[in-house]
Write a structure and sequence with these properties.
The N and C termini lie far apart (46 Å). Helix content is 22%, strand content 38%. Among the domains are: 1-28; 54-86 and 157-278, no CATH class. It has a 15-stranded antiparallel sheet that branches. It has five helices and 15 strands. The protein is globular and about 50 Å long. InterPro entries: TAT_signal (IPR006311).
Amino acid sequence: MEDLGRRRKFLQAGLLGSIGFILSSAGIPKVSVAGESSLQQPLLDEAIAAHGGLDRWRELTQFSVRMSLYGQLFDRKGHGGGELAHLVCEGTTREQYFRMTGFREPDLRVTYRPDRVALERTDGTLLQARINPSDAFAGHTAMSQWDDLHLAYFCGYANWNYFVVPFVFADPGFECVEDGIWQENGETWRRLRVTYPSGFVTHTRVQTFYFDGKGLLRRLDYGPTLAGPGHVAHYCDEHKIFNGIVMPTKRRAYRLEADGNVVKSLLLVGLDISSAEFS
């Protein structure tokens, strides 16, 4: 019976390998959906392993990050001038919750959930709140000013997403398609085109992620966003390990033109992380 089992496994492996070879030879991209075998999603598996592994991630429930945000986007929206220079950000890994303390004043904080944002003091005093906050962006243009609750929503969903990638792609409902090889600055990166589940709050439902030879996230493309109609190339560098999780500590976002050119003469968003803790 053992010999028969071995033969079956051998034949199954050979059949899967042959199918993969035929598909790749025909130029058909591999599609990986969360929950399928690692044979069908090698890039996603490699990326998750490179950032600390799914087993380690599932041991964790929350994070705390010290960071600063700056760039032309915040200046344009009325929140420049160092308003976001000294932030302590906390969130949960299982659901979209993000709290940003030190916003403009040391004891001022904003709290994000998909269906509610709030501005409050660190002692819990509620100053403002908004239900269904995405509705407040209706009619906005790239030059529209943001109030504090607009900022809370944008920074809340955006940064929460940044801190849970690529692990969140293993959750049900995400569809990942390997999207070929990309050459940039003498390096070879592999691309993963990700379609988010319907209703999931993020920049855009379809985004492209670029991973280097070590499996580390180096860039993501998305757009348009709530900040404006253009597309964005968002770079990730200076990866460090925090409690077994690898994350970039330097992020830079630039305008991505229709011809693929990245306009690095104007920094839309800069994000610098000085420390992080996962628990």
